[in-house]
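Handout, section B. The chain below has 672 residues.
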Amino acid sequence: MKHVSMAADSRSPLIALLVGAVAAWPCRSHASAAGLTSDWEYVQEVDVPETGVVKLRVPYDTLGASRPGFEDVRLVDEEGTEIPYVVDRLSPAVSVVRAAKSVSVSLTSTSTLAVIETGVTQHLAGLVLDVPSVPFIKPATVEGSHDRAKWQVLTQGVPVFRLANGPAQLELRFPAGSWPWLRVALDDRRADPVAITGVRLRTGVEFVETDVLPVKIERRSEVASESRIELGLPAANLLLAAIEIDTPEPLFSRELVLSAAGGTDRHQPEQTLARGTVYRVMLEGKAVSAQLSLPVERRIASPRLLLRVLNQDSPPLPISGLRAVCRPVCLVFRAPRPGKYRLLTGNRLCESPRYDLASLAASLKQVPVSRLTMTPLLRNPAYRPPAAVPQLQGIAAPLDPSAWCYRKLVRIGRDGAQQLGLDIEILSRARDGLEDVRLLRGDRQVPFILEYAVGELTLWPKVTEVRDPGNPSRGCWALKLPLARLPLNRFSCASATQVFQRDFELYEEVPDTRGDKTRRSLATARWTRTTAKADAKLELRINQRLETDTLLLVTDNGDNPAVQLADFELAVPLNRIVFKSDAIQDLHLYYGNPNAGVPRYDLSLVADELKALERSDVIAGPEEQLRKSSWSEQMAGKRGGPLFWAALILAVVVLLAIIARLVPRNAKRSEP
């Protein structure tokens, strides 16, 4: 295999100077390397053929095995000595957009001409037109000149436009070059002229190598006016430059929102990573203008992402493929001698290294990438898993559980970090934010951390079709759930009917204190189906806690045959608790106390360390009811609470007393 030479005399003077500066730094870390490799789970060998400065490109599976900030990456030589390095994330230089020195606009019989004096000596790679906020679409031609006498075509027939719903393409790109003068012509033969009020120039952008990786579409669903596509990246911790889409649609415009699901904050379940517009515009006989990528330029810690396509009133956009455009990550270090070096990853507890070489990080970007032989990512045979947060005690303050209504037995199989998923019984009985959940060993609390919405639990309700003799066009399905008060994420169903359009509503009937029922709407959507695709489903996003155990789905068939529905599914959030425990004694999980406050444990100070450990899955046993809820506790879970109802009763009594005093008494009858 060929290798790039690392000798200083084969480089430019600047690179040679950098190599000399790096060579002056010590090549060994001051930290002790004894027993270093046993704390790292994964290892790779790198064959370095000669002494010098090396720029090692890190494979993507190595990125996925490391921590997001590279805190656990170590490089050691054959003797086990730690080698300092610098992380180089290959990002492009930021292009500069600046106003042109002058712009002269004129009209001809067929076009709008803008002659631009650039006033810059740097290479230009594009320009942006400033136009009024009116819808239009026109072919554009850009020419460059050094003397305003001879003009060279830089790009021709490229559409520029502004659509009525907001998206616009007003930038014209061309090969980078130095141009004192530019000329832009907008073709006005098919539409009225559009005023050009200004021009901004874009300087050339340094090219940075990227890799295009496949993206797996895990799941797609159509919810109301948007498509929700769950994506699987090939690895975690990618430096994601953009997401590219493939679609056969010849003419479209859609807004995209890329999000990462967050599992530790119930108030912000999704973190928006990028938002932008993709489009394709075609003019007959002219070039196609398309923007099919969503710029991201962020380091993505999780390989699971959610892409939302906002369709508004347009049909769902067909997407045939997705790709991730990723920027490489490199390690720059000085190899003191030829030989084999080991790259170590997978230590969830170590601190980030601090090397003196970091002061040269900006300069070392000039070093070219070395072509080296590297083994695949392998599990380290000498790896020893760390103890589960040894500095943390496994118990907290005592607690009297007499105020709790329910508990479940939790059996621990082995010592260490544990995780327990909260089932639907716990979700139904506990408070909305799970503030009343407690874990006890005897009368002592076991501290834990809560992870919200780490997945979903799927429920299949018992479905009954309800017919209304007085309204035969009304379709209605009653969905019976196993429990009331469940937090519902979404609802879905399928249909065997091939072509239809219906408006659906999902609601529940909530009884009040007088026994009357109030209709509580949960979601509405229009479902249009024009193909016989078996995977076409109606999906409704709910994200609300139910008050009853029965839902009703209704639609109006009008003068059409009744639509046939099947495969009803409901999903509730999967929340779990993470804690440390040994197997010497079983635990109990308590819940069902509307007056309990949020627990505060010191465990939150080392939450990241605990969550990084390998965990054992434990499950809770059958539910045990300790006592029945009092009237005040039942009212606490309803709107207003006990204070509201007590105040209401008192107000009624006072009102009746006032009315009694205002009514005149009957005069006494006279005696005979």
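Note. Residues 1-19, 21-35, 263-269, 667-672 have pLDDT under 50 and may be disordered. Compare this with the example in section A.
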